[in-house]
Amino acid sequence: MRTLVFAVLLACCGCSAESDGRITPKEPEFLVPDHSLPAFGGQLVGTDRGEFVGKLMFQDEAGDLQTLLDENVHGIVENPAGIFVFTGLAHLGGNEGYVYVVSLGADERVKTDLLGHLPGAPSQVTLQPDGSATFLVYSGFSGDRQLYECYSLTGNIVRRSHDCLPPKAMGPNNSFKPKPLRGSA
After folding, report:
1. How far is CA 163 from CA 7, 32, 136, in A?
2. What is the DSSP annotation of the chain?
3. Which is deepest, 4, 33, 44, 95, by most CB within 10 Å?
4. CA-to-CA distance for 33 and 77, rounded, in angstroms?
């Protein structure tokens, strides 16, 4: 038996293909944002990759990307008080959410500062005509029904609200991924 295992291992070691030493270039990666907003002479772009964690990035005029946050982005809105990003994840018993302020630092680089911690992951971030934003915060289950609370961001103040749209239905794989908020084109 040992001889057979050794023979199989030896055969596998010799199975590599010949190489002429050239390196094949990788295919370019394309960023498909879930959320975007023109800002600071470039574009803020956010992705939501669920348990695999998304990102908030700033793409400058030259197309260079700067990663600002390694978190799932659920919305980017701008109002007279500034630019705000909603992040979070509800997965496997965890339920976290945050709101960040995006601004230019003293060094003229785009930066984020934590505005506050939410009681759960935000979703359905919707910019209202008056400049406020409404959003749902996931708060758990009751039986087989998901529960959400309604909040709003007015200026830089987050408070409970009653102006949210009802939650959208769950997706085909029992995941909740609302239609993303899109920045102006």
Report:
1. 70, 30, 10
2. -HHHHHHHHHHHHT-PPP--SPPPPPPPP----SEEEEETTEEEEE---GGG---EEEE-TT--EEEEE-S-EEEEEEETTEEEEEEEEEETTEEEEEEEEEEE-TTS-EEEEEEEEESS-EEEEEE-TTS-EEEEEEEEEETTEEEEEEEEEETTEEEE-S-PPPPPPP-TTS---PPPP----
3. 44
4. 15
Q: Write down the pTM of the prediction.
A: 0.73
At 93, the amino acid letter reads G
The CA distance from 106 to 129, in Å, is 32
Q: 178: pLDDT confidence band, cut at 50, 70 and 90?
A: very low
What's the token pair of residue 180? 């993303």
Return the ∠ at Cα 158 (arms to 132 and 49), rounded to 5°: 85
As a dihedral over the C-alpha atoms of residue 184, residue 115, residue 91, residue 142, rounded to 10 degrees, the angle is -100
CATH class of 32-160: mainly beta
Residue holding tokens 């609302």? 178
DSSP string, 51-84: GG---EEEE-TT--EEEEE-S-EEEEEEETTEEE
